[in-house]
Amino acid sequence: MSETFGSSRLAWWERSVALIEAVAARRTVHLASEPEGERWGTIRPSDSTATMASEPTRPLDMAVVGDSLTVGCGVERQSDGLVPDMARSLADVIDRPVHWRAYGRLGATMRRVRFRLLPQVEGQPDLLVLCAGSNDLMARRSEAEWREDLGAAIDEARTKCDHVVVISSGQVYRSPALGRTLRKAVLTMTDRQTAISRSICEGKRVQFVDMTHYDTGLRDDDFWAYDHFHPSRRCYGLLADGVIGQFEDGLLESLRKA
Questions:
Q1: Per the confidence metrics, is the pTM higher than 0.85?
Q2: pLDDT tens profile 178-207
Q3: Which three-class secondary structure state does DSSP give residue 231?
């Protein structure tokens, strides 16, 4: 039988406690729904007047495909979510307008990304970002399944775009909606998934962004949305800065010229 993430790293009694807490969470956690609004838009650099003379004929085209983070669960409008915040941050860094598109679904695993969401991406974006993993952990999908789905999703993404970025799972292990032992189990699983993802991305020569361990500096009251499971409006902005801040210089230079 394929090993699930971190299944051998908890004491036997901790596994039982974590299982009980997981059952309780399914009954008590009420996840924020997908917010309303268009799942696309164009963001200009903050100092737009400085770029008027040299602005490219078209904005950079960025598509992000993934789970509830991709569609901004936890905020009221799509425009307040992670993807438009990434576009704002990226536009300022490369001094170029960014057209963003979000293809996501609450509860999406990497398998759903691979088979359902990636095929929805139209055209040839300049930057394609994969953002999923937390639901694979919560569903206790195996390491072998993760390796297969992430690797295949990257391969499919590269047929659509030369510049592919993979974002790690979020920080569900911090969620105050989960029990203490379950949070410990989720952290162990997330650490293992992150290590595997980094290795796969290195092998396929695509940019990997570790948001699992990114410190926003926010305490729980400010980090979480009202469901205590998804990021708050403020947190999405800081996470977006963290994503773009980890882009390699070579990638940023390529995006300036794309």
A1: yes
A2: 999 999 999 999 999 999 999 999 999 999
A3: strand
Single out the residue of 80, 130, 123 nearest to residue 103, CA to CA. 130
Under-70 pLDDT residues of the chain = 1-9, 12-13, 47-57
**How far apart, in Å, are the Cα atoms of 128 and each of 8, 28, 164, 167, 253?**
35, 35, 5, 11, 16
Burial class (CB in 10 A: 0-12, 13-18, 19+), 203: exposed
Contacting residues for 69 by C-beta, under 8 A, at least 6 apart: 81, 82, 104, 131, 134, 170, 230, 231
E strands within the chain?
40-43, 60-66, 98-104, 127-131, 164-167, 207-209
What dotted CATH number matches 12-257?
3.40.50.1110
Output b/e per residue, 91-107; b: 16+ Cβ within 10 A: bbbbbbbbbbbbbbbbe
- Which residues on neighbouring strands pair with residue 128, listed in sequence order? 63, 164
Joined together, the tokens standing for residue 52 give: 């008027």
Rounded distance, CA 185 to CA 67, Å? Answer: 21
Sign for the pseudo-dihedral over CA of 73, 129, 206, 133: positive
180-204 and 12-28 helices, crossing angle to 10°: 90
Q: How far apart are CA 123 and CA 127, in angstroms?
A: 12
What's residue 118's pLDDT? Answer: 98
Burial class (CB in 10 A: 0-12, 13-18, 19+), 191: middle
Is the separation of the CB atoms in 176 and 252 below 8 Å?
A: no
